[in-house]
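We emphasize that the prediction below concerns an isolated chain of 294 residues; any contacts that depend on oligomerization or on bound cofactors are therefore not represented. The input was used exactly as deposited, without trimming of termini.
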Amino acid sequence: MQTIAFLGLGTMGSPMAVNLCKAGFTVYGWNRSAGKAEPLLAAGGRSAASVPDAVRDADVVITMLPDAPQVEEIAYGPDGVLAHARRGSLLIDMSTIAPHSSITLARVAAEHGIRVLDAPVAGGEAGAVDGILSIMVGGDTGDVEEARPVFEALGRTVTHCGTHGLGQTVKAANQLVLAINMQACAEAVVFLEKAGVDIEAALDVLSGGLAGSNVLTRKKPNFLRRDYTPSFTMGLHHKDMGIVVDTARAVGVALPLGGIAAQLVASAVARGEAGLDHSALLRGVELLSGYDRG
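Result of the prediction step, given as a token string:
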């Protein structure tokens, strides 16, 4: 498994492809829009002019795309992966899409003699750059073990969650917890500031106790500075919360806090904040509280 086609060189995909190069794989990168291959080329990778060119000789094809429609277009189209990849190759979809879409992809790909793993990731842009992503994998055990060297070049935690679609199900749970935690942190910030507490000292105290979390640690600078430069956009989290809500309905699970969190994320997107970091949930709390830090 030495030759990899990496399709989708965006915020996450570009550093992931670079890390695969650094691990010794031959990587052919492709992106829908031009001008995204420079970091990969600088790392010793190669740029492909089209999806067929990228996948034709690849042992592994990795897709890292925004949502299911893009994955399906790249996979199923006449110039797509299934039409041009070698029989017996392994397609690893590391996008975050609905579990049922991953299950369908695995079934259709099998008809073309192509194996599939769904392997969404958590850790954001920083985790992608540092190669410390958490990777949640769904698919056959043998395929997961065969792909392990690839995963270990990208992440610190690689977990086989079960059959096709279950990697995406675990990722949906991750996004559920993340949204609720982010909203709780945002509420705490406004609560503390409006009460006149030294916010930086207060967040340090919270971080050292049971209320501490990766969200609070990683997003503390965003909260303190009101810096919403995106490492993960509100728009993408909105998409992910749609997956959470739809999947919960399909399996018959009530998500009282999750439903509220999904609505608050949707509200931020409706206010035109889709391009901001998801820590901008803080703006919604400020708005509801009539609070302007000035």
